[in-house]
Design a protein that fits this description.
One of its GO terms (cellular component) is P-body. The chain has about 800 residues and is an alpha+beta fold. Helices cover about 25% and strands about 25% of the residues. The chain has 18 helices and 36 strands. The longest helix has about 35 residues.
């Protein structure tokens, strides 16, 4: 709490200056003759917020707004076991998604209890069919799937599970007793309202469309993201002929920035920042995504580029070579996606006379080129991560570093940080060495190359089947090293999972693009194979070893990565649902969940699909993994990584694309000149940017899939029901790994439908109009795990597509 209050003190100056929480906000809203009645409550004074937090009367947290039902918002409870529900836009008090806010319970006379008329199984933002405390009695509509989907990168670092944040609102009795504010019980759901915005993490930028309003001095901007309010934009900001030819701009996408949101208006005020182009086209849509999520995609300035070596081609200075372990004659190679250009990790493996192995993980020494506190470092720390989109990468560092000086390109001397183990064939570590080194990769292998070597252990690979190889090392030597690494990795992996680790793999969509137009030509579900697992195991091993190493050396300064356990109440509810469905799932620990997902299910096609749906269900209670500074978190038990089931973990293996890894490298080199508070602040920033990066990546994939459906659809696929509501159901489209909601009222050929619920089990009965009207309707039961046939087809709106349920075959015919 003290750390948060210190941060609050740091923030107050900037936010008072912007008018977000200024005392003037209170004065403006006092009312009076000729003034509009306030829509929103005035913000509390800073001093009152500090006192309220200290006394436990107020709660702070990061706001999450449901993107498909934007009246619903949540912040985590103080103990992080459940979520606090904020109902309606007024309750959010002008805060936007991602903002750090302070909330308080409203007076009890403002509480109302309404019963939701929705039912949901396996697909809801929170468990439905409960009594929810709400601020006003408004009809509840269908709940959308979890709004915040954070998919941790598995293909490069492969360290985290696929995670989702999902919420539950809890219940409260109608005859609630008076609440003592000094001892709030967060296990019940009261009515909360935002009273202060600590940090505006939302960019206040939005993509959307302009609408002309006759007799008004402004136009109405409607954001595509409904979590952002509509914005009044001065006509002077609009295109020159907008007043006379507004219809020409119906399909034009704009970027608008919010400059103010008065307390007496439902609408924000803002200005147009840019005309992007036609909605539905990839580049305008992509630029809109990047701008909205505040991703810096500008070219690097001359001042930044001046920090890079001038004399090219660059060679390693002799004095630097003398300070490093020389590994240039070793058989070291990279394994990456075929299209990768930023190669930041390499592997080596040689058998020792005693039958054990010397295994090395060699990581690009980015910190050699990125000196702390120079302009390049400042920009890299602000970007914090590279952002990978379908058609391009927004790099954290200039391309000269990413693709040349730091990239472990073959047949080139490169500076590295290495961790080298003496390890038994079974995977037991006997010895460990950390240090700065210099390597010369002998070949750039793709995952396909390595997979071919694993699948053909006896094959003599001809040179033409592989990329250029350093003549110092034979193809057979490289092949044998890959096989040895694969063998050790299998043992390491088996030990990890038998020791209680968890991995939740979800279907990941990949695209093939036209090289000239960069338009999607095809798409497929990415296959995670043994070559991926090989790299994953040694990156995990290196990250775990590094975490222990830097924590021993710098117990107050180490930058680590923790993964909190899933939210308890949601796990209990999921366990109850699985028990009722007759599914033998043990959610008591990460290891128990992994074992039950991978041993109690069969391997036929139906079971494989059911496992995908179960994986989605089990991912919902999971929380995000977070960077943190050990000096800022006093309880060591909180350092644990739940999914990996290890006490200490960090990121060391991708410094070209993650700034957190650069800090870790500086710790390894004992050259970090930062305080605990500064490391914690950078950790928090890296968390924000990583979340944004993943969301942008997801939106890019959705954009390209929408284009693919439009250009190549309609697309037929088998799908499995993931969740059932009272008037709709969610499906996982198995061929493409996408989730869609199907609304019963929009199903062509459906005569009627009805819904029933037994306990937590929800079921829809669909009655189809028979082709021969003399026959009775065809009945189709929709419940969780039902297999159906769907067709994906483009909608009228740009980039949008829907899933249409195909008519079941009539068993009577």
């Amino acid at each position: 709490m003290k750390q948060f209050l210190d941060g609050l003190n740091h923030q107050v100056v900037s936010f008072s200056a912007s008018g977000a929480n200024s005392p003037a906000d209170k004065n403006k809203n006092k009312g009076g003759r000729g003034q509009k009645k306030p829509v929103f409550e005035p913000y509390m004074a800073y001093e009152d917020v500090c006192h309220g937090l200290k006394r436990g009367e107020l709660i702070h947290g990061q706001l999450r707004i449901n993107p498909k039902k934007y009246h619903e918002a949540f912040i985590p409870s103080p103990d992080d076991t459940r979520d606090i529900f904020l109902d309606g836009i007024v309750a959010r008090n002008r805060a936007l998604n991602g903002d750090v806010v302070v909330v308080q319970i409203l007076p009890q006379e403002q509480w109302k209890v309404v019963r939701s008329d929705t039912d949901c199984e396996g697909a809801s933002e929170s468990e439905t069919q409960k009594e929810h405390v709400v601020q006003r009695a408004q009809k509840k509509t269908e709940r959308a799937p979890s709004p915040d989907v954070i998919v941790e990168d598995q293909c490069s670092d492969q360290d985290e599970i696929v995670s989702k944040k999902i919420s539950d609102t809890g219940t409260v009795k109608k005859n609630s007793t008076k609440v003592s504010k000094s001892s709030l019980d967060f296990s019940s759901s009261f009515v909360y309202q935002v009273v202060y915005i600590v940090e505006k993490k939302h960019s206040r930028a939005a993509t959307g469309f302009l609408k002309f309003l006759p007799d008004k001095p402004f136009a109405m901007f409607s954001p595509v993201d409904h979590r952002v309010p509509r914005i009044n934009v001065p006509l002077a900001d609009c295109p020159e002929n907008f007043r006379s030819r507004s219809g020409d701009y119906t399909n034009t996408l704009f970027i608008c920035r919010i400059t103010n949101w008065p307390a007496d208006s439902n609408f924000a005020e803002g200005h147009l920042a840019k005309t992007l182009g036609q909605a539905g086209e990839i580049e305008p849509e992509t630029e809109g995504i990047l701008t909205e999520y505040d991703v810096d995609f500008s070219e690097f300035s001359d001042e930044v580029l001046d920090c890079l070596p001038k004399n090219l081609p660059w060679t390693i200075p002799p004095e630097e070579l003398r300070e490093r372990r020389d590994l240039r004659t070793e058989c070291i190679f990279t394994i990456d996606p075929a299209t990768a250009r930023d190669l930041d990790d390499a592997l080596s493996c040689k058998q020792l006379p005693d039958g054990n192995f010397e295994v090395g993980v060699h990581i690009a020494d980015v910190s050699y080129f990125v000196e702390q506190d120079n302009t390049l470092d400042a920009v890299a720390s602000q970007r914090a991560t590279s952002v990978y989109m379908v058609q391009k990468v927004i790099p954290m560092l200039p391309r000269l570093l990413c693709e040349e000086l730091c990239s472990l390109n073959p047949l080139t001397d490169r500076l590295t940080f290495s961790v080298i183990w003496k390890i038994t064939p079974e995977g037991k570590i006997l010895d460990e060495w950390f240090g700065r080194s210099v390597i010369r990769s002998c070949v750039k292998l793709s995952y396909d190359h390595a997979q071919s070597m694993i699948e053909a252990p006896e094959k003599m690979f001809p040179a033409e089947e592989l990329p250029p190889v350093d003549p110092v090392h034979s193809i057979d030597e490289i092949h044998q090293a890959v096989l040895n690494l694969h063998s050790i990795a299998k043992n390491l992996r088996a030990q990890r999972f038998s020791g209680g680790a968890l991995r939740l793999d979800q279907l990941k969509l990949s695209f093939t693009l036209d090289k000239e137009t960069m338009m999607p030509q095809g798409c497929y579900v990415y296959q995670y194979r043994d070559s991926n697992k090989l790299v994953e195991e040694f990156m995990l091993l290196a990250n775990i070893a590094t975490a222990h190493h830097i924590y021993r050396k710098f117990p107050e300064l180490a930058l680590l990565r923790r993964h909190p356990p899933p939210k308890t109440k949601m796990v209990d509810e999921l366990q109850e649902l699985c028990d009722q469905l007759g599914i033998d799932i043990d959610l008591s620990s990460a290891g128990a969940l992994h074992k039950s997902l991978n041993t109690t299910l069969g391997d036929d096609e139906y079971t494989s699909a059911r496992k995908e749906v179960l994986t989605h269900m089990c991912s919902r209670p999971m929380q995000m993994a977070l960077y943190f500074c050990t000096g800022g978190l006093k309880e060591e038990k909180l350092f644990k990584h739940y999914a990996l089931n290890v006490p200490l973990y960090t990121h060391f293996t991708s410094p070209i694309r993650r700034y957190a890894d650069i800090i870790v490298h500086r710790l390894l080199a004992s050259s970090l000149r930062l305080s605990t508070e500064e490391v914690q602040k950078q950790s928090s920033h890296c968390n924000d940017k990583k979340t944004i990066s993943k969301r942008v990546q997801e939106l890019s994939s959705e954009l390209f899939f929408g284009v693919f459906v439009k250009e190549c659809g309609p697309l037929d696929s088998e799908a499995m029901v993931m969740g059932v509501l009272d008037q709709s159901f969610d499906v996982l489209v198995l061929r493409y790994g996408v989730q869609k909601r199907i609304y019963c009222k929009s199903i062509a050929g459906l005569d009627t439908f009805h819904h029933r619920r037994v306990g937590k089990k929800s079921e829809l009965t669909l009655l189809w109009t028979p082709e021969d009207l003399e026959n009775p309707p065809i009945e189709q039961i929709i419940s969780i795990f039902t297999l159906v046939e769907v067709q994906l087809k483009a909608d009228g709106a740009p980039m949008k597509y829907s899933a249409a349920l195909k008519r079941p075959e009539d068993s009577r015919s």
